């Protein structure tokens, strides 16, 4: 009997300690739950997808930047002008301009690339960065992207070329694009563009002094749109308007219309427009094709994408 009288108080005390500890743990858990309820988790932004089908919309870039790890190979091709009719099969048997381009997205929202053009053996380097992306809830109503490139004329120097120093070989293009996906079918984009040539053609005035035919800088704006007529096919349109007035050889505006056809890894565009070059600085500053004289060019863009 004495044995139980000695140990019973100890058992009682142990039970009380256990109950107090359990109560403390339950109270702590409830407080943590109340704290979590008071601070709801931050929702991740959900962005509008597929504002356009890819990097290109005829002769312009789009606000789209491929996902991280995407490698892209592009073929840009422009035939001759259509105004000679059947003499050269509407320009398809005339001299053509072509560019082969390669680009990669090393980090999210940043793309870098390189290209080679048969016109004047020009090579180009480019960069593209998404500054803002449209959200599904419209807290950010538009997408904003910067695109820029630098090009170099790599032809051997000769007497007929207006190249004296290495710097004369370079030209640059800068573009800020603002776009919005209005519906699943319709998207539109506007951009302001700045072109710079380190060297421009000149002429001799009446005093035998060389004068530039054009300014070194050229400002323009562009309007582009896409309307999907099926899940994989879209009608695409561009309009490009020069703003800068030059002493001579002012460029003509561009009007182009085409079809965009997309598959899982390919994007194919075929179109009719005034721009005959494959680089934007050449098109925006040097275009002499006039759509009022039916000087259109048949062209196509082919893009192939791989993800690593």
Describe the 3D structure.
With 308 residues, the protein is mainly beta. The protein has a single domain, classed as Beta Barrel (Porin). The chain has helices at 2-38, 280-286; strands at residues 56-57, 60-61, 70-81, 97-107, 110-117, 122-132, 143-153, 170-181, 186-197, 202-204, 210-212, 217-230, 233-242, 254-262, 266-273, 297-307. The longest helix has 37 residues, at 2-38. It is globular. Mean pLDDT is 87; it is low at 1-8 and 17-22.
Descriptive labels:
308 residues; mainly beta; Porin; two-stranded antiparallel ribbon; globular; disordered N terminus
Q: How are the elements arranged and paired?
A:
Elements: H1 2-38, E1 56-57, E2 60-61, E3 70-81, E4 97-107, E5 110-117, E6 122-132, E7 143-153, E8 170-181, E9 186-197, E10 202-204, E11 210-212, E12 217-230, E13 233-242, E14 254-262, E15 266-273, H2 280-286, E16 297-307
Antiparallel strand pairs: 1-2, 3-4, 3-16, 4-5, 5-6, 6-7, 7-8, 8-9, 9-12, 10-11, 12-13, 13-14, 14-15, 15-16
């Amino acid at each position: 009997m004495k044995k139980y009288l000695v140990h019973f108080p100890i058992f009682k005390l142990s039970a009380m300690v256990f109950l107090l500890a359990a109560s403390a743990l339950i109270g702590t858990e409830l407080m943590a739950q109340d704290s979590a309820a008071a601070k709801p988790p931050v929702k991740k932004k959900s962005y509008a997808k597929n504002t356009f089908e890819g990097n290109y919309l005829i002769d312009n870039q789009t606000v789209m930047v491929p996902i991280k790890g995407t490698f892209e190979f592009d073929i840009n091709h422009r035939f001759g002008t259509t105004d000679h009719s059947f003499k050269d099969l509407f320009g398809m048997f005339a001299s053509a301009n072509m560019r082969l381009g390669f680009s990669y997205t090393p980090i999210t929202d940043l793309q870098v690339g390189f290209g080679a053009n048969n016109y004047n053996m020009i090579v180009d380097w480019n960069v593209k960065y998404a500054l803002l992306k449209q959200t599904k809830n419209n807290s950010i109503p538009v997408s904003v992207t910067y695109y820029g490139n630098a090009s170099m004329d790599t032809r051997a120097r000769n007497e007929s070329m207006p190249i004296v120093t290495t710097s004369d070989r370079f030209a640059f293009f800068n573009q800020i694009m603002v776009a919005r996906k209005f519906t699943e079918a319709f998207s539109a984009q506007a951009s302001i563009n700045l072109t710079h040539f380190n060297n421009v053609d000149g002429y001799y005035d009446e005093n035998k002094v060389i004068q530039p035919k054009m300014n070194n800088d050229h400002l323009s704006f562009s309007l582009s749109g896409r309307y999907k007529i099926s899940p994989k096919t879209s009608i695409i349109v561009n309009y490009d308007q020069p703003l800068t007035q030059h002493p001579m050889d002012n460029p003509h505006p561009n009007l182009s219309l085409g079809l965009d056809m997309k598959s899982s890894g390919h994007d194919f565009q075929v179109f009719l427009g005034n721009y005959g070059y494959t680089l934007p600085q050449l098109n925006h500053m040097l275009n002499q094709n006039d759509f009022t004289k039916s000087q259109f060019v048949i062209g196509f863009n082919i893009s192939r994408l791989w993800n690593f």
